[in-house]
């Protein structure tokens, strides 16, 4: 049987109708032109780029689409926001961010620290993964360049109080950037009214193509370009526009907006059923992340005394009579670095829980049957690994002594 | 990323479980690092009669434990002493570079079990 996909926070498939919309913009005989060309083929391509810019702006609640710049994805958008601001404000030497940011933010901050003498404040989070806005206020110094705090965490789904953080940044005339890659298309945004200067997003998290994203740059925000070449994107990002990708991003934004509310509720129901069912069936299990301020689609659970990579591999192994399940884990063994997830470490979770963490991230193509399968397949796999685990054996013996 | 041998030993691990009559038990690793291996041996007349394991860890850690218990069965203490992590890796048809430490852990666990045996049977009376 085929694999059931529970890893939508990693990436999503392209919506078929989005794929269809993209095709004419790359095929011979279609409108594949260079948007910078002044002939009719180029002008049609230009119009398509601007239409997509408008579609992105609409989803974000931005009335002036000129504030949207296309990038190669979320990582480039984060780099452009932080490094671009640093290049424009040479007097600044300090950044405030959180300890649970995506590496596309964390490692840009580290880079500025290593190479340009920046000081970086990595704010701690509470047990639910939330940054305290008061801590942001206390961290700001006279030479602070910006505050960068993500909107929704990719691993545990925790939402940050960005309205409060943004407002206090504005009071202090400090730039505020938010990596909203996981939040866009899942929660409604109205950036015209929000105290946000810079916001990163990516198409492949919202049923668009990989290799395309955007950065919202509030009018008046000084940001130097990282790429130099032609005068694309009003000199903000040189390079011939990724025409079909841009069309795909725009179409993905246009498609997800109207269905957001219904999908939010539907996926939340599925997620809650999955979570409750696993907690009920599996002893010594817990949910990580904030109990309420959390993405609707993300279930991040820990199973004590099992190791995440082993669990992931057993779940992934499809058989003739059962599908595989594609999930992800923050365990050290699966990270490629032998370090467990920095997010789980920041939550202050003990090692016996950290390694047994698994993320189920749901999406629009998940069904009730998918959740039924997960509820059927996960508990015996956890039990099987615990049967093998010396830590579980010790735990059982300890509790037998106590009783 | 894993060879068919690793996947086989991971999905169908051999000799899992605690051994009631083990006379050599070794453990290494730590929960903090995410790998704990425990091996149980029954040694009689200087020869490993039975071997079993319990392991908390990734697919490679479980596969190396499983293959190790197969490797030691029927071998003399001196032969078991000579087993290196590279022997375990070879039996699995290779491990990804980042997982080589699992085989090192297996070698350490085995040595710990033999040390335990020698403590229990001073002057090598069990040989």
User: In the CATH hierarchy, what is the architecture of chain B at level 2?
Assistant: Alpha-Beta Complex
Q: Give the low-confidence spans of chain B.
A: none
CATH level-3 fold name of chain B = Sufe protein. Chain: A
Pair of chains with the largest interface and how many residues each contributes: A-B, 26 and 27 residues
Model description:
The complex is a heterodimer of chains A (403) and B (127). Chain A is of the alpha/beta class and 403 residues long. Chain A has two domains: 3-9 and 260-402, Aspartate Aminotransferase, domain 1 (Alpha-Beta Complex), CATH 3.90.1150.10; 16-256, 3-Layer(aba) Sandwich (Aspartate Aminotransferase, domain 2), CATH 3.40.640.10. Helix content of chain A is 42%, strand content 14%. Chain A has helices spanning 16-22, 40-60, 74-88, 103-116, 133-139, 162-171, 243-281, 308-316, 332-335, 342-346, 351-354, 368-388, 390-402, and strands spanning 3-5, 68-71, 94-98, 119-123, 144-148, 175-179, 198-202, 213-217, 285-287, 298-303, 324-326, 328-329, 357-361. In chain A, helix 6 links the parallel strand 5 (144-148) and strand 6. In chain A, helix 5 runs parallel beside helix 6 and helix 8 (308-316) packs across helix 12 (368-388). The longest helix of chain A has 39 residues, at 243-281. The radius of gyration of chain A is 22 Å and the shape is globular. With 127 residues, chain B is an alpha+beta fold. Chain B has a single domain, classed as Sufe protein. Chain: A (Alpha-Beta Complex). Chain B contains five helices and three strands. Chain B has a three-stranded antiparallel sheet. In chain B, helix 1 (4-11) packs across helix 2, helix 2 crosses helix 5 and helix 4 (85-91) packs across helix 5 (100-120). The longest helix of chain B has 21 residues, at 100-120. The N and C termini of chain B lie far apart (41 Å). Chains A and B meet through helix 8, helix 9, helix 11 and helix 13 of A and strand 2, strand 3 and helix 2 of B.
């Amino acid at each position: 049987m085929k694999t059931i996909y529970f890893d939508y926070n990693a990436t999503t498939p392209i919506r078929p109708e989005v794929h269809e919309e993209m095709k004419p913009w790359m095929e011979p005989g279609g409108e594949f032109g260079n948007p910078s060309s002044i002939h009719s083929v180029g002008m049609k391509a230009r119009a398509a780029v601007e239409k997509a810019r408008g579609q992105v702006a609409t989803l974000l609640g931005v009335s002036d689409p000129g504030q949207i710049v296309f990038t190669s994805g979320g990582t480039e958008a984060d780099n452009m926001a932080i490094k671009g601001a640093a290049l424009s404000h040479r007097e600044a030497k300090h950044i405030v961010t959180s300890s649970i940011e995506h590496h596309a933010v964390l490692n840009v901050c580290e880079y500025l620290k290593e190479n340009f003498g920046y000081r970086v404040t990595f704010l701690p989070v509470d047990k639910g993964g939330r940054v305290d806005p008061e801590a942001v206020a206390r961290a700001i110094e006279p030479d602070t360049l910006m505050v960068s705090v993500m909107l929704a965490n990719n691993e545990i789904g925790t939402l940050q109080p960005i309205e409060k953080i943004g407002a206090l940044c504005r009071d202090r005339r400090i730039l505020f950037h938010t990596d909203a890659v996981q939040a866009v298309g899942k929660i409604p945004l109205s950036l015209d009214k929000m105290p946000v200067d810079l916001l990163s997003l990516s198409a492949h998290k919202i049923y668009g193509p990989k290799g395309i994203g955007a950065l919202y740059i509030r009018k008046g925000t000084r940001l130097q370009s990282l790429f130099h070449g032609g005068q694309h994107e009003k000199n903000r990002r040189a390079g011939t526009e990724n025409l079909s990708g841009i069309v795909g991003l725009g179409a993905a934004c246009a498609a997800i907006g109207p269905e957001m509310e219904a999908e939010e509720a539907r996926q939340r129901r599925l997620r809650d059923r999955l979570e409750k069912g696993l907690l009920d069936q599996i002893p010594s299990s817990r949910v990580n992340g904030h109990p309420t301020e959390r993405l609707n689609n993300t279930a991040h659970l820990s199973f004590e005394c099992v190791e995440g990579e082993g669990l992931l591999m057993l779940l992934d192994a499809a058989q003739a009579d059962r599908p595989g399940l594609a999930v992800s884990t923050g365990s050290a063994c699966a990270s490629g670095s032998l370090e467990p997830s920095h997010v789980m470490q920041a939550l202050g979770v003990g090692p016996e829980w950290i390694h047994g963490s698994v993320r189920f991230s749901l999406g629009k193509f998940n069904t009730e049957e998918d959740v039924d399968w997960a509820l059927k397949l996960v508990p015996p796999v956890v039990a099987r690994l615990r049967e093998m685990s010396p830590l579980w054996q010790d735990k059982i013996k300890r509790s037998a002594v106590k009783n | 990323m894993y060879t068919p041998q690793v996947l086989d030993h991971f999905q169908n691990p051999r000799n899992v479980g605690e051994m009631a009559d083990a006379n050599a038990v070794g453990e290494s690793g730590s929960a903090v690092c995410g790998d704990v291996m425990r091996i149980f041996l029954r040694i009689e007349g200087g020869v490993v009669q039975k071997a079993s394991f319990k392991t908390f860890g990734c697919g490679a850690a479980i596969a190396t434990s499983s293959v190790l218990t197969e490797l030691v069965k029927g071998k003399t203490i001196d032969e078991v002493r000579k087993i290196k992590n590279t022997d375990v890796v070879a039996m699995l048809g290779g491990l990804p570079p980042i997982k080589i430490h699992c085989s090192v852990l297996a070698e350490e666990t085995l040595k710990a079990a033999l040390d335990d045996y020698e403590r229990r049977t001073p002057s090598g009376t069990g040989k």
